[in-house]
Amino acid sequence: MNRYYWILGAFAALVVLLAVGLNLNPREVPSPLVGKPAPAFKLAVLGKADTTMGPEDMKGKVWLLNVWASWCVSCRQEHPVLVDFSRRGNGTPVVGLNYKELRGDGAIDMRRVPAEQEVPMALERAQGWLKEHGDPYLLTVMDIDGRVGIDYGVYGVPETYVIDKAGIIRMKHTGPVSPQILNDKILPLVAELNK
Amino acid sequence: MILARTLIFALSLLSTAAFASATNEAALAEDPVAERRLQDLSRELRCLVCQNETIADSNAELAVDLRREIRGMIRDGRSDSDILEFMVTRYGDFVLYRPPVKGITLLLWAGPILLLFIGIFAMRGYLKRRSAQVAVTNAKPLSAEDTRRADALLKEIDDK
Description:
The complex is a heterodimer of chains A (195) and B (160). Chain A has 195 residues and is of the alpha/beta class. Chain A has one domain (33-194): 3-Layer(aba) Sandwich (Glutaredoxin), CATH 3.40.30.10. Chain A has helices at residues 2-23, 73-87, 115-133, 147-151, 179-194, and strands spanning 43-44, 52-53, 63-68, 94-99, 139-143, 159-163, 169-174. In chain A, the strands form two sheets. In chain A, strands 5-4-3-6-7 form a five-stranded mixed β-sheet. In chain A, strand 4 (94-99), helix 3 (115-133) and strand 5 form a beta-alpha-beta unit. The longest helix of chain A is centred in the first third of the chain and has 22 residues, at 2-23. The model of chain A has no long low-confidence stretch (mean pLDDT 90). Chain B is mainly alpha-helical. In chain B, 71% of the residues lie in helices and 0% in strands. In chain B, helix 2 (32-43) packs across helix 3. In chain B, 13% of the residues are buried. Chain A binds chain B through residues 26, 29-33, 100, 103-104, 106, 146, 150-153, 155-156, and chain B through 48-49, 51, 61-62, 65-66, 69, 88-94.
């Protein structure tokens, strides 16, 4: 009889292992960028012709970088949270990184978009979306071809980065920011970094 | 009927897949060596959007972008390890289908060997115990009663 106990024990251990494994979210891939300097970029600012912006412009501030696009359904879900966050005005700037506004939209056949029209179309769409849903951003930069997105390891829009005064990425959140994540994770970290 | 429908569905999937890879391959066809390297490299890399597909197999937006990125780096004469490094610094070890051996992946790599040794150990113990048991049984001659029963059983078989 005794020998069956350890078989039962091994089975229970296996069940625990599988239960833990199956409850992990495979989408939550730890970013190797946390603790590293925010990759540099120089991108056009939405709505301000001929102006560019990069992470070095934010030196000395704790800020959030939020990756969004008008075609991204989950962005719609998190957007009110960001709008509310910016209205509360606690002084933490949120920079929008518009990721592949046209190219990322599965509904658009890029072969039918003339090359010279891509940028104006993307700007118009992005602006229209912000007008409709509210603009929580200090400014939005346009990553038309997704090249900067690759440098930031973006793989599922929306994504949000917390960047400290020295320009080091302190946290990355993949997926929509919920009020809970904002209050429990992002805000305490921002307060800590602002000390 | 269901089988036929499944078959048609599978065939249509196959044909679209073939078409998709044909359009991708056209881009680097002028340089078969580079194309070969692109194929080999992207087979080592996981697509983070669909997770269980390689960048070579996936037609997700991101995989297309990353293939373009790798293509560009090959054109610039970067080495394979450079290119893999580029991917790891952005997406982490998770992009590699063969993760490097280090602290956090030790159990992953050593686990199967560990299990094999536990198995060998358990089996040796079992065999030892069993042979001891057999030796004990063989050492004892059968009692008169047992001999009679054994004979009766053997006879029963012969009679059938």
